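SEQUENCE-TO-STRUCTURE ENTRY
===========================

Backbone structure tokens: a row of integers, each naming the local backbone shape at its residue.

Task: work out the structure tokens from the sequence, keeping to the layout shown below.
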Amino acid sequence: MKIGPREIHTPFRKIPLEVAEGMTPVEFFNSFANLKNLADENGLLKTDEDFLLYRKAIGHSMEFDCSIILNTSARILDPLGRPVRRDQLNRQQKNVWSRMTQIIYEYMLERYPDPEEALVLCGEASLDPTWPFSKPGVPSIRMIHNHFMVFPTQQIKDAPLADPANPNLTDSGHHGLFQEELTRVYGIFMETLGLEVLKLVPVDQSRIALTDYPRGLPSWEITGGKDALRERRFWDEYDLILKGFLDFYRTFFSLVSTRNSGVPEEAYFKDEIENILLFNNCFHAAAKEVRNHITKDPKFANEIRWRPAYKQLLYRDDKGRLIVTISQNSVGNAITELLGIVVNRKEDEAAYAAAEPALVAKLLDVRDRLLAADLGEPIRTASWPGGVFVPPVKR
């Protein structure tokens, strides 16, 4: 069997919303009108902290696919003023976010216990809030969100190989920079964070066998497996991975921007930055290389993310281990593409309708678990008015 990234085709039903004339789809998807429709038509549950669990109407997988979003659109009208990273949440929000993530992920592991039968993952996405609305690769909703999905292994096996040169798979070359120039110093820096539950795994030992991804990303195994997800210590370390990444990213691109710049003001680990990163000649050399490239190549310069943007994944590998990884840059790639899965969505009413009842039944099951843990209130929609799926009326 050939090994490499796969292209999976996923059906969807046309959303009954029209993009206003003169607006790009990304601009419209970030509007209050679309977010209200998202909750009203596909919302499953909402919490007092503004978290919304919803079905992905145009999603990645018809096996299992849902998201949690911090839906602040009703009280923060400025799309650029909404929280886009976990470190911007208050303590209560972060506690609820972690509990919801743990319950949903544990449900997926129980429903799909065999790592040879299904790829189980969730991924948290964040953007630089100054990234232009019209830029390709900007997610449809500019607020912090976590995406949960399952892909049957057979579906991945049957899928055709994707183009390995797809810019979303290569992340516009930025993974190569980290992999070739900065892996060692990045590892040394992250080892100072005091991780106990998370154990660093060599980058070539955490890949999905069928796709041979992820590529060039640092990965950590969760010692204790799914039981560790119920421990607060794991979620604290999950946050440390993010904070360490943010510090590394900010320091590096500050150095790219301004030669011999110092420790960023907002840094979490100031001493480690001073003693490890800014005293490392390879770190400075890589920054110089990028800075020189920027001055000579306007297209490359336009792809630079000057503020931290990331996707942090939790997935089960072929050996059944739970792995955490974080992307060094997120130019245009979807969460699945970090694992070598390119999703090609196609409007197909019949195919979507055939898979919809089973999908919704699982989403309602997981909603029941969240309700039992006192995490939110149910949302009634036309598709599940009383907690049971009802086929939509044909338009």
Q: What stands out?
A: The chain has a mean pLDDT of 87. Residues 6-378 form one domain. Residues 232-257 form the longest helix (26 residues).
